[in-house]
Amino acid sequence: MHDAPDAFATTVAERGAAPDAKASINLRIDAGTRQLIDEAAQALGKTRTEFMVESARSLAIDVILDQRLFLLDPARYDAFLQVLDNPPAPGPKLRKLVKRTPAWEK
């Protein structure tokens, strides 16, 4: 965490494991960012909380999907499977790396 005035600090308090249980997130943000969020929320007719939760949730889904899901047309999918099924032979750099003693064993 930074000590700068525009630092962003997050704490999460969890309350139980029930599927519909609510948790709180406390944020400290600079005044300019808060004003920007408030203006955007107002433009959409939402509360600050609604706007922030919906925005964060949407971005979180995009990030997770970007890391886990990609779509290919049939030709590219077949090419992708071909590469997975027939990886290239290890080159000299990979052979050298495999022979090296790991740092945690030194």
UniProtKB/TrEMBL annotation:
Keywords carried by this UniProt record: DNA-binding, Repressor, Toxin-antitoxin system, Transcription, Transcription regulation
A GO term for molecular function: DNA binding
Matching InterPro entries: Ribbon_hlx_hlx (IPR010985), TacA_1-like (IPR014795)
Descriptive protein name: Antitoxin
Organism, scientific name: Tistrella mobilis (strain KA081020-065)
GO BP terms: regulation of DNA-templated transcription
One Pfam family recorded for the sequence: TacA1
Entry similarity comment: Belongs to the TacA antitoxin family.
